[in-house]
């Protein structure tokens, strides 16, 4: 994306459509409308595009704001992104579980056949539970399951179907980092979508960081159509008031989080979000000493051994980013990303994290260099069961809404919501 797309430009007096918010949903909406020939302007209150998908470049390191991955199998993403240019570096299709002070590797045998024995023998549940889960995942990916008539909690479904031990030692530790909540109250319908995406594609990191995704979308918009540092103060039919002046239009698309959307219109209620904190460290050991040199997500199989999660084990997951994407750290350095559910911003938190990392990786971490931490209060919209997988994009005459919380809480969900909002605008002949 050239600088002209984000250069400071004064607001026009009028346009066809105003999109409020330059996150993934807003950019996807604007792209669809621009392709249809409408004059679209995107207003963003912050200093850059991407919303929750941002990447900082610090001292030769790429630091995504929170641990995020992109799955090349996302159908909506394949329609609007140049995946070849994005150059996603896939992670290992498996998980490393630390339990009883030992490490076990569980993986899709299609990708990691040498881990097959470890997968079968790992003490995270019975062999029957493992086979039953693998069968369920495959059938789910093939669409062989009947759609759920009534939604339910993922946690309740998993324990009832695959057993408490398998859920407690493997599924709950892994999924808590996906859903950003420990109790697995998230919709089972969403769980099925997540499992399906893991089978159909290997998530990874775009070359140059996660923010390459919104940058690629922005590059498809006309120069000067994105306005940064422009906060919307109020909206009314056919007009948007901003800190940079008023703008008249025929349609408005709100593509912010629910809190901001609710401040602009009474037709949207603020809904809960899950929070996360991500820490970055540079390891002082050889890269191959960590997870066999593979980009495997590491989880703690003992974290939920008691009813209340062990506070001394705060991390939901950790991964060596540079095993998948070496460009995330210059000069051959080893960059580790670790995340915990919730906001943890005290000095003591980092000490707990460092201790937990030593347990997870089985190597001393006292010499690891702390790089940065990102406490993110509104990292992911809650999708507690029951969850409606689709909600209307049209709020009122000339007023529309987009956001992953209007579909499913994911990058693909943001893209889908953007297309739906754009289609609603076009159907109304704006």
Helices and strands in order:
Elements lengths: L13 E7 L3 H12 L4 E4 L11 E4 L2 E4 L10 H6 L2 H4 L1 E3 L3 E6 L2 E6 L8 H6 L5 H15 L12 H9 L1 H16 L8 H13 L3 E3 L5 H7 L7 E2 L4 E5 L2 E4 L2 E10 L3 H7 L8 E11 L13 E4 L16 E4 H4 L9 E8 L5 H15 L7 E13 L12 E3 L2 E3 L9 H17 L3
Name its key features.
430 residues; 13 helices; globular
Tertiary shape: globular
Total count of strands: 19
> Strand pairing plus helix content: what structural class?
alpha/beta
**What average pLDDT do the residues reach?**
94
Poorly predicted regions are: none
Number of helices: 13
Distance between the termini: 28 Å
Oligomer state equals single chain
Q: Taking Cα atoms only, what radius of gyration do you get, to the nearest Å?
A: 22 Å
> In percent, how much strand structure appears in the residues?
15-25%
Instruction: Tell me roughly what share of residues is in helical segments.
Output: 25-40%
Main β-sheet: number of strands, strand sense, barrel status? 8 strands, mixed
Structure report:
By secondary structure, the chain is an alpha/beta fold. The protein is built from 13 helices and 19 strands. The chain has helices at 24-35, 75-80, 83-86, 116-121, 127-141, 154-162, 164-179, 188-200, 212-218, 258-264, 321-324, 347-361, 411-427; strands at 14-20, 40-43, 55-58, 61-64, 88-90, 94-99, 102-107, 204-206, 226-227, 232-236, 239-242, 245-254, 273-283, 297-300, 317-320, 334-341, 369-381, 394-396, 399-401. A hairpin with a 2-residue loop joins strand 18 and strand 19 (399-401). The radius of gyration is 22 Å and the shape is globular. The two termini are 28 Å apart. The mean pLDDT is 94.
